[in-house]
C-alpha cells in the first residue's frame, strides 16, 4: 500500500469514528467534544483543525475551519509538490488532498512529534555573518543581505540551523531560497515537528494561504 492510500484510509477511519460519535464535519469545532471518547487527539490554529489517532500515529487529518480556510491546505499540497521538484522535500512534512468527506475537502499529512519547547531550546541564533548562499548572496554585502532577508516573517534560527547541521551547505542554501521565493512565512517552533531526530516543517501554508 502506498502512502497516499494509507493516509486516505486513516483519514476516513478517523472521520467515520468521530461522525458516529456526533461530529459534524461542516462544523469542525464539534470534534473537540467527542474526540477523546474515540481516542482522537485534536489541535487547532487560526485556520485549521488537526486530528490524529492517539494509538496509530502515522498520519494527521487537516480540515479548514471554514470553507475559505481550505486554501491553506491547498497551498501546503502545492508547496510540497514544488519542494519535491526543488529537491528540498526532506524538510517538509508529506501532505496530500485525499478526497472529500460529506462534500468537505480532506487533507492528510505525515505525523510528526511536535514539541515546540524542545525545538526552541535546541536552536541557536542563526548568524548571517557566518553563513552565505554560495553564489546567490554576497555575505559581505550589507545591502544584498538586507534585501534578501527583508520582511521574511519567520524565525530563521528555529529551522535553518537544523537544516544546515543535517544537510550539506548547498542543500541548506537551496532550502532557504525556496522558502523565501515561495513566501513561506510564519515558521516558528510551534509549526515544526520531529521526523525521528530531524526537524521538519509541518505547518507551512503561511499567513496569507
Please describe the topology of this protein:
Blueprint: H1 3-20, H2 31-34, E1 40-44, E2 48-53, E3 59-64, H3 70-86, E4 95-101, E5 104-110, H4 116-122, H5 142-149, H6 156-166, H7 169-181, E6 192-195, E7 198-201
Antiparallel strand pairs: 1-2, 2-3, 3-5, 4-5, 6-7
Helix pairs in contact: 6-7
Question: What do these coordinates show?
Answer:
Mean pLDDT is 80; it is low at 124-156. The chain is of the alpha+beta class and 209 residues long. Helices cover 37% and strands 19% of the residues. The chain is built from 7 helices and 7 strands. The strands form 2 sheets. A 5-stranded antiparallel beta sheet has the order 1-2-3-5-4. The protein has a two-stranded antiparallel ribbon with strand order 6-7. β4 (95-101) and β5 form a beta hairpin. α6 (156-166) runs antiparallel to α7. It folds into 2 domains: 3-110, Phosphorylase Kinase, domain 1, CATH 3.30.200.20; 116-201, no CATH class. The chain has helices at 3-20, 31-34, 70-86, 116-122, 142-149, 156-166, 169-181, and strands at residues 40-44, 48-53, 59-64, 95-101, 104-110, 192-195, 198-201. The protein starts with a helix and ends in an 8-residue tail after the last strand.
Amino acid at each position: 500500500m502506498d502512502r497516499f492510500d494509507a493516509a486516505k484510509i486513516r483519514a476516513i477511519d478517523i472521520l467515520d469514528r468521530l461522525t458516529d460519535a456526533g461530529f459534524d464535519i461542516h462544523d469542525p469545532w464539534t470534534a473537540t467534544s467527542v474526540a477523546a471518547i474515540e481516542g482522537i487527539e485534536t489541535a487547532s490554529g487560526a485556520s485549521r483543525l488537526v486530528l490524529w489517532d492517539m494509538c496509530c500515529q502515522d498520519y494527521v487529518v487537516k480540515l479548514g475551519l471554514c470553507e475559505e480556510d481550505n486554501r491553506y491546505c491547498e497551498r501546503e499540497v502545492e508547496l510540497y509538490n514544488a519542494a519535491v521538484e526543488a529537491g528540498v522535500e526532506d524538510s517538509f512534512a508529506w501532505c496530500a488532498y485525499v478526497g472529500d468527506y460529506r462534500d468537505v475537502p480532506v487533507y492528510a499529512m505525515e505525523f510528526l512529534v511536535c514539541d515546540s519547547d524542545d525545538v526552541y531550546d535546541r536552536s541557536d541564533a542563526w548568524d548571517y555573518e557566518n553563513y552565505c548562499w554560495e553564489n546567490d548572496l554576497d555575505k559581505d554585502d550589507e545591502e544584498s543581505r538586507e534585501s534578501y532577508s527583508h520582511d521574511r516573517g519567520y524565525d530563521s534560527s528555529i529551522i535553518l540551523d537544523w537544516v544546515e547541521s543535517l544537510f550539506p551547505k548547498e542543500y541548506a542554501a537551496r532550502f532557504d531560497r525556496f522558502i523565501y521565493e515561495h513566501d513561506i512565512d510564519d515558521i516558528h517552533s510551534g509549526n515544526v515537528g520531529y521526523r525521528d531526530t530531524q526537524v521538519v516543517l509541518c505547518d507551512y501554508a503561511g499567513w496569507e494561504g
